[in-house]
Amino acid sequence: MWTRALRRFGLAGAAALTAMACSQQDAAETPAAGLPAGVLAAFHDHLDRISGGALVCRDGDIAAAATVSGDINADRRPDYVVDTRSLNCQARRDGPAVAYFCGTGSCAFPLIVSQGEAWQTVALMSGNQARIVQHYRETRIEIREGARGVPGGGITVREYTWREGRLVRTGEWVEGVEARRLTD
């Protein structure tokens, strides 16, 4: 029974791979898997704003970047945080494209949040890792980075949530050897 099902799946899978290989469309130009078209458009608008039109990221490049998603504004639609460290963009002017996102020790993590049928891009604090966490009755974004100037080192953690139509920082603390809460 299982052998027959696997054989059928194998034939169907081979046919699908053959059809994909014969396609005329370049994989980098196909719509970004898992990201709605509105999210891509909002991110492109964000890129134009931060670079004055000098930064170009193809949809395939955005699709290849790591993202985390969760319902930040409680509208039952996913919102997205883009890990800009892994973007492969091009700068139209002199200078590296990565300079638009990353500094010496951390990178910006933009949030693309649903607003009805539209999408809005909100710049987050910089860090080295982003994740979505559930905190009691609200979803939060957690941005982590190496703690600078803290005796004993550690990881600085900043939490954000969506309240009254805007992103607010709800907490900041250092995890590590001498963990302590910085704000509340």
Put the structure in a nutshell.
By secondary structure, this protein is an alpha+beta fold. It has one domain (34-183). Helices cover 22% and strands 35% of the residues.
Tally the helices: what do you get? 3
Residue-averaged pLDDT, rounded? Answer: 77
SSE string = HHEHEEEEEEEEEEEE
Flag low-confidence runs. 1-32
Approximately how much helix is present in the residues?
10-25%
Global morphology: flat
Strand order of the largest sheet: 9-10-11-12-13
Count the domains. Answer: 1
Largest sheet: 5 strands, antiparallel
Question: Radius of gyration from the CA trace?
Answer: 20 Å
Keywords: Signal
Protein name: Lipoprotein
Signal peptide: 1-21
State the main characteristics:
184 residues; alpha+beta; 5-stranded antiparallel sheet; 4-stranded antiparallel sheet; 3 helices; disordered N terminus
What does this structure look like?
The chain is an alpha+beta fold. It has one domain (34-183). Helix content is 22%, strand content 35%. It has three helices and 13 strands, in the order ααβαββββββββββββ. It has helices at 2-21, 37-51, 59-64; strands at residues 55-56, 67-70, 79-82, 90-91, 107-108, 111-115, 118-122, 126-127, 129-135, 138-146, 155-163, 166-175, 180-183. The strands form four sheets. Strands 9-10-11-12-13 form a five-stranded antiparallel beta sheet, with no helix packed on it. Strand 12 (166-175) and strand 13 (180-183) form a beta hairpin. The termini are far apart.
